[in-house]
Structure prediction request, 258 residues.
Amino acid sequence: MSEELNLPRKERFARIIGQVNAAGAVEVEDLAARFGCSVETIRRDLRYLEAKGQLLRTYGGALSIQSADVGRSFEKRREEHVRAKEQMAFKAARMIAPGLTVALDGSSSCYFLARALPQVQLKVVTNSMRVLNLLKTNPLYTLIGTGGQIDDKHEDFMLAEGADLHFSEQLHIDLCFISCVGIDLSGGLYDMNDGIARIKAAMMRLSVHTVLLADASKFARKTPFLLGPVSAVDYVVDDGGLKDEHRKRLHELDVNII
Prediction:
């Protein structure tokens, strides 16, 4: 282990990438101890490597992009950026009027929105088993599960390649609320695996408007799993941390910011 202390920066990068790909996930504090660096130095390393598309940062660590699924458990995601998600849920809920049909994806951001839905008559479409369980006792909501292949890791429905939603010809969605793992404003929206990306894209196709709930930490991030172009989104709900450069680019793409 001593030969890994005080490595040149490029060599440290190579060792970090090797470790994250071998283990699937790494923690900042473990890397700092291994390489004899400060935690902040390792965080800078991970930001740089993520910008190069070589790993995906998480809260307190990083994931390998070689995985077929770069998502973390719902419980972990629900505990991150709580204030930002509450802020976005409050803003998004104000967009919802009685009688609308709304779609909520399986993200933790949309779970916060499900908790903040107005107490009015709504039809709610979702691929999230957690959202279905949360809302099932409320008589004001008519619930429609998307169906599809069950994703055991995330407790969501996802779509296999070539499949479509069984009700795709019959359902009209007014507002589709989604989140994602990464947003590259010169590329697109990225998600945790192919099946989740496909089912979100299918819900978006059925919707009049798509609303993106993504805290500021999601910007300038990529995964191997493309959900769709940023231009497919009509609204981005700002958590209060949106950078001016990102705001300017969204305006150039004709995306409204709330």
Q: What stands out?
A: Residues 179 and 213 are 5 Å apart (CA to CA). DSSP finds nine helices and 15 strands in the chain. The first helix runs from residue 9 to 23. The chain has two domains: 2-63, 75-257.
